[in-house]
Input
Amino acid sequence: MPNTILVIGEISKGNLRKVSIEAISEARRITDRIGGSLQVLLMGEHLDTAAGKAAEFGADTLILADDPRLANYLPDTWSTIAADVIQTNHPAYILIGSTTTGRDLAACLAARLDAPLAMDCVASRWENENFVITRPMYGGKVLADIVLEGTPRIIVNRANFFQAVARKNSVNLIRYEGPIPTSKLSLDDVQREASARPELTEADIIVSGGRGMGGPDFGILEKLADVLGAAVGASRSAVDEGWRPVSDQVGQTGKVVSPNLYIACGISGAIQHFAGMQTSKVIVAINKDPEAPIFAKADYGVVGDLFEVVPAMTEEIERLKAGQ
Amino acid sequence: MNIVVLLKQVPSTDSLIEPTSDKRSIKTADLKWVINPYDEFAVEEAIRVREAKGGTVTIVTIGEAKAVEAVRTALAMGADKAVLVQDPACAEMDGLGVAEVLATVVSGIQPDLILAGQRAVDDENWLVPAAVAHRLDMPCISLVIGQQIEGDTIVCKRTIEGGIATIRAKLPVVITTQRGLNEPRYASLQGVMKAKKKPLDTVKLADIGLSPKSAKSRILALKHPPARTAGKLIPGATTVEKAKELVRLLHEEARVI
Ligand SMILES: Cc1cc2nc3c(=O)[nH]c(=O)nc-3n(C[C@H](O)[C@H](O)[C@H](O)COP(=O)(O)OP(=O)(O)OC[C@H]3O[C@@H](n4cnc5c(N)ncnc54)[C@H](O)[C@@H]3O)c2cc1C
Ligand SMILES: Nc1ncnc2c1ncn2[C@@H]1O[C@H](COP(=O)(O)O)[C@@H](O)[C@H]1O
Output
């Protein structure tokens, strides 16, 4: 029987998430190597735009579970549908993007299928016939090369690590016609922040503030973030002070991020913070203390008062963008 | 209420982690060991639920002999009793194997509520609570920042990508913790004294009728991520000059803006 490789994609604001596109590209590379067919399963409602996107990145088959009852993630309902698809097609690999939902779903599936799981993978390679996956442990202080034994192997890929490569294919579209199982959980309410900024884990650029912000007004960072199309993050101290929500915390016990550019403003560079952003491509530190440990790890350091440096940067970037 | 906390002992987050020479594990000699920070929230929340509703808080841990310290700390915080599964075979297990052992221990307790950390900050599997829940046929609500129990129903606020969801379920359930749920208490001196007399069972796999299950996830090698070194300090007589130079370098040299 030919191999099947399955990606379970995630929808955000009507479109396929970037991390899901990266999962599809990685799955395409695996499919090309071992042969077989790449399936993408989407669950949610109004899936057409996302489905179109999945097709642009090399899906052979799209399975759409498009139903208003799937508008919000519920672990048992979603994992039952996914397990149904998996038991029909017996994929060798399952790829899922690392988001709050993706991790939860992956864990449920691993438990249900008694299948090996590699959470938050950042790289992969073939060693002969072994698919070796690299994933961080200890808050990114070490990287582990691991192999998974048995099928299906569930791989959760972290955003911004696997290259997305467009690839046109002729796609076979399947509508999921199975039952939508009821959940043991009921959703009373969902509140989403109305932010137009990208999410931390997927952002190309992050501007983060620490205790050096001195208070809850992150206005100058938000302004810089907006001219850059960036997300705004925070150190744990800024969260503990109540200046920013827990979901903004970057670090070993917060979110682990890997943007192209990480701008740390008034952050000293504690080991737990560094663990969460050390794989950023370029790190900029703005700190008034020339002895701050963060300067030892930053590609570019500015010794100065962030309340002067940040607005001056914003102005300069606006000028740069206007001239382009 | 029968409340269970799944608690793991991990190296403290300020530890430097060094792979061993065979690269299969880490050097443990100089590490400071603590309760997994997310499991501390679980212990605190469990005690609060018991304070409000009555009942018993049982700590369940799989770990080596030294894990007794973490368990005792949880008892000193106010948990009532503990089971420590201490068996050399457990060291070889992956998250699925750990979950099987935990579920076997917990099923004997018949819990109304199981609290666990969202992740252990050593292996970071993000797996064990969901797998325990599956084995016990309970729903799992992850990343909880607030909960309220009325009768046989629990209502949880959980963080989702870019927001907060409110979820309702009938007990028993498994919930995992998110920062913001509570502020864990310190163990008082009196608590520490009391903890010494609280029941702590140490069991082996054979005692609970299990034989070790082989891991499906195998570590080939641990290594350090590429080291980062200090880069350029941006020169400039004034802040504005520095800011301009920084933007120029980010644009022309690093090409990230
Ligand atoms: C179990 C545990 C888990 C943790 N997990 C995390 C985590 O996930 N993420 C995390 O971030 N931390 C975490 N921490 C906390 C961490 O140890 C540090 O305490 C925290 O990162 C410090 O935050 P900070 O850099 O904002 O504050 P500080 O260390 O107080 O640094 C503030 C910096 O701002 C600078 N500054 C002040 N004013 C200005 C100004 N006007 N202009 C420019 N610079 C200025 C100062 O020079 C200083 O360097 C954890 C700690 C523990 C114990
Ligand atoms: N060895 C263990 N003993 C007890 N609880 C554990 C153990 N391993 C994991 N857990 C629980 O499962 C949570 C998530 O762990 P993990 O899936 O390994 O990231 C932890 O925060 C604990 O609550």
